[in-house]
Design brief:
single chain, mainly beta, 5-stranded antiparallel sheet, 12 strands, 41% strand, elongated
């Protein structure tokens, strides 16, 4: 295995579980720590595309998946050299799951242009968020729905 390879975590451990990183999660190798036979890994959030956590994992707990394509390697290296890359130390549990009923709690111009306003209810229409935005299906009137992306901070679970 080498830097920028995609891997899968094949064993759980207490330290990673405390960061919401569990067996089966995918990651990208950032750097190798030879003395400890460990890797610094960028673990990718399955429930929020674009989110990640940087943590250490033993080589024995990782399984090689595939090589990163050459077009992405320079972008990846630029990301890991970014100012806040190493501040992402744990994954947040997802706020919602697919088919959850939600209410819009904030008005925003990008929602209003689709006819969606504060107080309207909808349904989470995907199993994951993209950069903290969830795809929500909002019923505007019988037979007419809005299919929009809404930031998770603008949604509340209907219980």
């Amino acid at each position: 295995m080498k830097v920028s390879d995609f891997v899968k975590l094949v064993n759980d451990n207490e330290e990673l579980r405390a960061k919401n990183i569990f067996k089966g999660i995918n990651g990208v190798l950032v750097s190798y720590i030879g003395a400890a036979d460990e890797w610094i890994v960028q673990f990718l959030d399955d429930y929020n595309y674009g989110a990640y956590a940087v943590a250490r994992a033993k080589t024995a707990d990782l399984k090689f998946s595939y090589e990163m394509c050459s077009e992405w390697v320079s972008e990846f290296k630029e990301q890991i050299n970014g100012r806040d890359f190493y501040t992402h130390t744990e994954l947040k549990p997802p706020k919602f799951k697919e088919y959850d009923s939600v209410i819009i709690i904030n008005d925003k111009p990008e929602y209003e242009k689709h006819g969606v306003k504060k107080g309207m209810t909808g349904c989470i229409a995907s199993a994951y968020a993209i950069r903290n935005e969830w795809n929500v299906l909002v019923s505007l009137e019988p037979g007419k729905d809005a299919d929009i992306n809404v930031h998770e901070n603008d949604l509340q679970l209907v219980e």
